[in-house]
Each structure stands twice: as structure tokens, then as C-alpha cells.
Write a structure and sequence with these properties.
alpha+beta, two-stranded antiparallel ribbon, 10 helices
């Protein structure tokens, strides 16, 4: 079985448990006709953090999906089905208009997102990015599905080997490339400042990040540090109470 072979290759690399997702992504980028790979954690609210990315545009596009709360990984995780977009320029504007604009600008013409689940438990998404228009050939699609199955096994293995062994705590115990703790803290602060629910507070933070062309993480740091507040109607202002 191809999935077993992939896991054996990851194990043979001799990397530590926390580095296994990165090794899986490296192998995936090598074996498939693509330009970038991203492995992200997902929650009901959307992307929760990037576990590993390859070289190329993957890191930029995973950050863009986190900022916007839209994109193929969000749709794939929500529906539980793969989002296979062979021509992003033709299909993307109607499904993910802002993400598509950014992806095309980054040189990505096709996106293939595979949901990572155990039953109804949502773990994450494996995103594949390619610079040329066109569907994955049947053998490449089979290979991608095998890597998605291997990614589930790797994420569960990493969870099982966290210091406290809390596998049941869910995907948030998997180490991510960027620390989202400040984002969650900032979301709670915005919820109080703007008088909105947590989900809406995260939308406000993402919208502000996109409008200012900065990352969600940078704005979250400013909110936590008191440099940016969200007052009435969710308007973000620099410094000063009530602004």
C-alpha cells in the first residue's frame, strides 16, 4: 500500500517526531507534479495554523487563507470533500474571489486541497499548489490521496507523542510553524471591545489585516499590546480607549 510506503520513507529519514510533518511535505513536493505543499490544522472556525510548508508559494498562500478565512482549504475542511481546482483563474473568482486574486498574483494556477479527518473529527487539510492549469492525472491523484492518508497518520503520531500525551485534546496540540496564541488572545479582546461574538471578532481581525496588507499575527500582536483597539461597530483604531 502506497500510504505505508510513504510513512516508511518518513521514518527512514531519521528526523524527530516534531519534524515528521515537514519531512512528509518535502516528500510530497518531490513526488508530485506541483510547485508547493501546505499542511494546515483546521477547526470549525477555519485554519488554525500551518504545520509544514514546502518551498515556493505555499507559505504565502496558507497565510492568505488564514487571514481571509476563505480558500480551498477552508472549503475542503468544511465540506469534507477534496477541492480539486484545475483552473483557478476560471473557477476561483466565483468561489474565493480575494484568495484567487492573491494566488494568481503568486503564480498559482491550480489548487488541490484534501481534507484530513478521522471519522467526523476534523484534523486539517493537505494543500497542493501548481503553477500550470490542468487536473491531476489519475496516477498523480492517487498519489496525492495516499499522501493525504499519510498526513493523517503523521498528525496523529505527533499528537500521541506530545509531552502529556493528550491525543484526545485534538489537533491544537500539534506544533505549528506560527504561534497562534496571540491571535486567540486578540480575538477575545476584540470580542469585548467591539461587543461581538468570538467568531465575528476573528472576522473583524482578518478583515483589518487584509485591508492594511499586514498579517493577522502582526495585528494580533498590536491588539494584545494595546496599540490597536476595535471600538463601536468593530472599527479598529490605533491606541486610545474607545477608538
Amino acid at each position: 500500500m502506497r500510504t505505508t510506503q510513504i510513512l516508511a520513507e518518513v521514518a527512514r529519514a531519521g528526523v524527530g517526531v516534531p519534524a515528521m510533518p515537514g519531512e512528509l511535505v518535502r516528500l510530497c513536493a518531490r513526488e508530485l507534479p506541483i510547485n508547493g505543499v501546505g499542511l494546515v490544522l483546521m477547526t470549525d472556525a477555519g485554519p488554525a495554523g500551518t504545520v509544514a510548508v514546502s518551498d515556493g508559494p505555499a507559505g504565502t498562500l496558507e497565510e492568505l487563507q488564514f487571514t481571509l478565512g476563505e480558500g480551498p482549504c477552508v472549503e475542503s475542511s468544511r465540506t469534507g470533500r477534496a477541492a480539486l481546482v484545475a483552473d483557478l483563474g476560471a473557477v476561483g473568482p466565483a468561489r474565493w474571489p480575494v484568495f484567487t486574486e492573491g494566488a494568481l498574483r503568486a503564480g498559482v494556477a491550480a489548487v488541490f486541497a484534501f481534507p484530513l479527518r478521522v471519522g467526523q473529527i476534523r484534523l486539517g487539510v493537505l494543500d497542493l499548489y501548481r503553477g500550470e492549469v490542468g487536473a491531476l492525472a489519475p496516477e498523480a491523484l492517487a498519489e496525492a490521496l495516499a499522501f493525504a492518508d499519510a498526513a493523517v497518520a503523521v498528525l496523529l503520531h505527533v499528537q500521541a507523542h506530545t509531552p502529556d500525551g493528550r491525543l484526545a485534546q485534538g489537533p491544537q496540540v500539534v506544533p505549528v510553524l506560527e504561534d497562534r496564541a496571540e491571535v486567540h488572545q486578540a480575538t477575545g479582546m476584540i470580542s469585548v471591545q467591539a461587543g461581538v461574538a468570538l467568531a465575528e471578532a476573528l472576522v473583524l481581525l482578518r478583515a483589518r489585516a487584509f485591508a492594511s496588507e499586514r498579517s493577522v499575527a502582526v495585528l494580533a500582536r498590536e491588539v494584545v499590546g494595546g496599540l490597536l483597539r476595535f471600538g463601536d461597530n468593530g472599527r479598529g483604531g490605533a491606541g486610545g480607549p474607545g477608538r
